[in-house]
Amino acid sequence: MTGVFYFSTLFVIGMIFGGIYIRLILCLIYLYQIFLCAPSQKFRNFLMFLRPNDYFEKNGTIFEEEPPFEGNRNILALFPLNFCRSKHFENFHFLATRGLFLIPLGGIISKWIGIEPVDPHHFESLMEKGENIAFLPGGFEEATITNHNQDQVWIQSRKGFIKYALKYGYNLYPCYAFNENRMFCCFTWFENLRLVFNRWKFPGVLFIGKYALLPRKDLKMYTVVGKKIVLPKLDKITKEDVEKYHKIYVEKLEEMYNRYKERFESSEKLIIK
Fold first, then answer.
1. What is the Cβ-side half-sphere exposure of residue 83, based on CA atoms within 13 angstroms?
2. Taken in order 9, 12, 14, 17, is the CA torsion positive or negative?
């Protein structure tokens, strides 16, 4: 994701200050990104070869249930913008906002990795087949509110996935990546203004790390997957049903966070926005 941000910046610089040939090449690359770019197993194998998680001195994935994800019809809601490397996620579809695919150059990385769009039509088509899904409820907004001094998630207004889960009878898993918000020093001013940009699918995040580009490596980078929440399959779903199970989900996420916050030296409280 850091690459997505910085490659996009290079694209903008090239379009503004580059010569005619540089601009032409960048336009051709962007056309490839929009119309031809597809998932690349070679690129994913290359990332696995680099073993990026091992950059951190302490890292891993903790499952509160063993074995995790039995069968199909499982939804994993990821917080913050993390991607898990455990073998248990191999049969999951990872979904993200379409805006991610429009970011110049960075969108190529996203497509090569195999990220899929999270629009309602694609989301529901996967659920009709009973596929396992991992997605980012917070989207760009969660990136925008990232604060290296405080753990917080964007979930209060994201309830559509609860409705779909009730419609198709899915198991829902709370998930949190501890200390991911502390990898970089994040710009936290003008949050409301940056959230406005998110309405038009523009990122509103700015950050700096070690030597400007690199994240801290002295953190305990652990992703915790909580116990599943078994949702009923309802033929008729009311607003009250969605509110009820959304509240249950948020409560389970907070409870899971509180069980591990001291172990991973995180904030005293998880802020829910």
1. 17
2. negative
Running DSSP on this structure, what letter comes out for residue 179?
T
Looking at 156-160, 175-179, 200-204, 241-245, which range is the least confident one?
A: 200-204
The dihedrals phi and psi of 85, each to the nearest 5 degrees, come to -105, 0
CB neighbours of 111 closer than 8 A, spacing ≥ 6? 33, 37, 38, 39, 101
Tell me if 156 sits within 8 A of 195, measured CB to CB: no
Contact between 176 and 62 under an 8 Å Cβ cutoff? The reply is: no
Give me the pLDDT at residue 251, please.
96
Q: What is the pTM of this model?
A: 0.86
pLDDT-derived band at 39, boundaries 50, 70, 90: very high
Residue type, position 123, single letter: F
Task: Please answer whether residues 109 and 3 qualify as being in contact, where contact means their C-beta atoms are separated by less than 8 angstroms.
Answer: yes
For 157, other C-beta atoms within 10 Å of its C-beta total: 10
